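User: I'm new to structure prediction. If I give you an amino acid sequence, what do you actually give back? Let's try with this one:
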Amino acid sequence: MSRVVAGPRSSLLWVAGQVLLVATGIAAYFRVRGLTESSLATAQAHARHLVGFEQALHINVEPTVQAPVRSSAALESVANWIYIWGHWPVLLATMVWLVWHHHPQFLRLRDSMMVSGGLGLIVFASYPLAPPRLAGLGYVDTVTRTSASYRYLQPPAFVNQYAAMPSLHVGWDLLAGITIFCATTHWGLRVVACLMPLLMAWAVVATGNHYLLDVVAGVALVGVGQAVALALEARRDAASRAEP
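Assistant: Good question. You get back a string of structure tokens that encode the predicted 3D arrangement of the chain. For your 244 residues, that looks like this:
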């Protein structure tokens, strides 16, 4: 289990600085994401191309995954609950726990999210993609159908409706899961860490918010972010050892 770092870093001032930095990064991410929204026609055209590509690869699983959810109110509620409450609430709770008890893992998660988030914004701007629920291909928006308040709580200026590719819902949950697994030896928390990204991968497809390839792209993107974060961590460790 990781040890809490002693010294100046463990001060409330350092924690407050990290909270401010992360909050600024999140606000900038959503603001830039909102400004890069493209037209519905372009986003739907890209959606048709992507679905055609998935069909050519025989991986067009979205109808199969969503079918049970559309016919079961209980499954729909579970999928919606995971999609809504299994992302930002989980990420924020994880970061609060890490910033207070596991500084190295917090810094790793912070850096990997910032790198992958920045790369994600480039993809959002260069390849607007309508999610299944807005593609006009027969998919159902289960979140709006039974949890409309969730959509209303998202300020339009900060939300890009055509930012389906990549799925950072899955990608960032994967980063959080990896970080939790590395920060603790508690078997319960490790089980949760392993299940989080798997459940979110199911939920984003089942609710009509992402395609399978969005999930694959999200995982690939956070892999790059994690690699950069580990490199930065190695540099910090080297600099720390070099200090007198």
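You can read the tokens as a compact description of the fold. Here is one thing that stands out. The two ends are 27 Å apart (CA to CA).
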